[in-house]
Amino acid sequence: MSLPYLKEAIENDDKEKLIRYVRLHFGDGNEEAGKKEIDKSWIEALKLLLDSPETDREFIFETLENKDAETLAHLYFSLHFYFIKRSGEWIHDGNL
After folding, report:
1. Residue partners of 29: CB distance under 8 A and separation at least 6
2. pTM (two decimals)
3. Which end of the chain has fewer CB atoms surrounding its CB within 10 Å, N or C?
4. DSSP secondary structure string, 56-83?
5. Residues 2-53: pLDDT tens digits?
6. Is the dihedral of CA 35, 36, 41, 45 positive or negative?
7. DSSP, res 92
8. Residue 56: Cβ-neighbour burial (10 angstroms; 0-12, 13-18, 19+)
9. CA-wise closest residue to 37 among 93, 96, 91
10. Cβ distance 23 to 91 under 8 Å?
11. What is the CA radius of gyration of the chain?
């Protein structure tokens, strides 16, 4: 899928095309595998928070307040790959 495809989907507010792209990208061309990859990252993050551990929430709030949306989007995808790696079921190289 190309950049024009994604830009057209954004212009038309076609969320299904956008999520399909994400699933295909994360699943190396397999939409069902992509869905599984997304789920793995959420599960890994959730497992770490179940016991309500102490965290550096100030860092999180400062980052959200002081960084531009583009940087936060890059952080979002980097965290996604980080948590998938933690799952032990890694199918990507993690390069953005």
Report:
1. none
2. 0.70
3. C
4. -HHHHHHHHHHS-HHHHHHHHHHHHHHH
5. 889 899 999 999 999 999 998 988 888 899 999 999 999 999 999 998 888 8
6. positive
7. S
8. exposed
9. 91
10. no
11. 15
